[in-house]
Amino acid sequence: DLRGLSIRLFLMSNTFYESAGQNWFTLDNVYIHYNWTHEATFNATDVYAPSTNSYHCQHVSSLQKYDTLLVPSANTDHAAHWHITFTDFQIQAFNVHSSKFVAASDCATFFTPAILMGLITSLILLLVLAYALHMVVHLKHIDRYEEHKTTVYFPRSTEAEIRIWFLRELYRLGTPEDLKISASSHQKSRN
Questions:
Q1: At how many degrees (to 10) do helices 159-173 and 176-190 cross?
Q2: Do 63 and 34 touch, CB atoms closer than 8 A?
Q3: Residue 146 exposed, middle or buried by CB count within 10 Å (0-12, 13-18, 19+)
Q4: Model confidence pLDDT, tens digit, residues 106-139
Q5: How far apart are CA 179 and CA 160, in angstroms?
Q6: Helix H segments across the chain?
Q7: How far is the CA of 131 from the CAs of 112, 120, 125, in angstroms?
Q8: Within the chain, what is the greatest distance between any pair of CA atoms?
Q9: Measured torsion, CA atoms of residues 86, 100, 7, 30, in degrees rounded to the nearest 10
Q10: Strands across the sheet with 37-43, in order?
Q11: CA-CA distance, 107 to 113, in Å (whole number)?
Q12: Phi and psi at residue 158, in whole multiples of 5°?
């Protein structure tokens, strides 16, 4: 039965940081009261933002799967028996002028695992592309290697030498009767 449960965001501090040149607020502790008795205290010092802004986080939780922002304050406390998660949490400590929040300082980090893996993959692809371009730029033209080869010499043959070679091939491939017919037709054509 959770009817007697109340959560109090009690302790907040406002500190001026010279390096940032402005005041920052910090949510120091979160208290859980059940049936009007104090049950648990969580330290929440990782919940902070400039005093001119509000603080926003998708999950403020004591669970490790949500990047534990609420840490049990002591081992003797009952906080270890409680798990608390605020979803779409937003708080503004100071400079509250209306019922709306001012610009929020978000808890999400810039380098999430997905963004980091995307950057690493892009870097690898860029290196492969640079290597490929380097190899293409340094290709040698293939004609340069052919210029140094010697030319092939084909001796000129007379028409009579070609006919004799042709007849020898016919004799080698054909029958002697075919050769006689070819030789007689050759002699007739000369006359």
A1: 160
A2: no
A3: exposed
A4: 887 777 788 889 999 999 999 999 999 999 988 8
A5: 17
A6: 113-137, 143-146, 159-173, 176-190
A7: 29, 17, 10
A8: 138
A9: 70
A10: 5-8, 29-34, 37-43, 71-72
A11: 15
A12: -80, 165
Cα–Cα distance measured from residue 48 to residue 54, given in angstroms and rounded to the nearest whole number: 9
Question: Is the distance from CB of 68 to CB of 61 less than 8 angstroms?
Answer: yes
User: pLDDT tens-digit profile of 20-50?
Assistant: 788 888 888 888 877 777 678 888 888 888 8
Residue with tokens 């860029």: 126
Torsion of CA 64, 65, 70, 76, to 10 degrees: -30
Residues 6+ apart with CB under 8 A from 86: 57, 59, 60, 61
Phi (first) and psi of residue 27, to 5 degrees: -85, 105
Region of 80 please: left (phi>0), alpha (psi -120 to 50) or beta.
alpha
